[in-house]
Design goal:
SSNA1_fam; coiled coil
């Protein structure tokens, strides 16, 4: 019986040792889980902050793109109107030169050859 008692004590010691090892491994794993949960929370916070920032940038970008489009339209309209003014100025200049030429001829003293 003593031999059986000794064997039982040996098994008991080994069982306790195995249970302690399992508990130690569980504690290590639990620390890793807590670290990863903390990292997950930080990442989720960062994502939330970056999502809000991205939304603000997208809104600002949309306003600026719209403003640039307004500038492009205004510039195009102004350039077209300016071209019309240039064309009108050229036409007016041509008419003025022609009329000046006609007036000059009309006001020049007639030469003796014309008689």
């Amino acid at each position: 019986m003593t031999q059986q008692g000794a064997a039982l004590q040996t098994y008991n010691n080994e069982l306790v040792k195995c249970i302690e090892e399992l508990c130690s491994k569980r504690e290590d794993l639990n620390r890793l889980i807590q670290q990863e949960e903390a990292e997950k929370a930080r990442l989720q916070h960062d994502i939330r902050v970056l999502t809000e920032k991205l939304s603000r940038v997208n809104e600002s970008l949309a306003r600026r793109l719209s403003a640039r489009s307004d500038f492009d339209r205004t510039i195009a309209e102004t350039e077209a109107a300016y071209m019309k003014i240039l064309e009108s100025s050229q036409t007016l200049l041509n008419v003025l030169k022609k009329e000046t030429g006609n007036l000059t001829k009309a006001t020049e003293p007639r030469s003796n050859k014309d008689h």
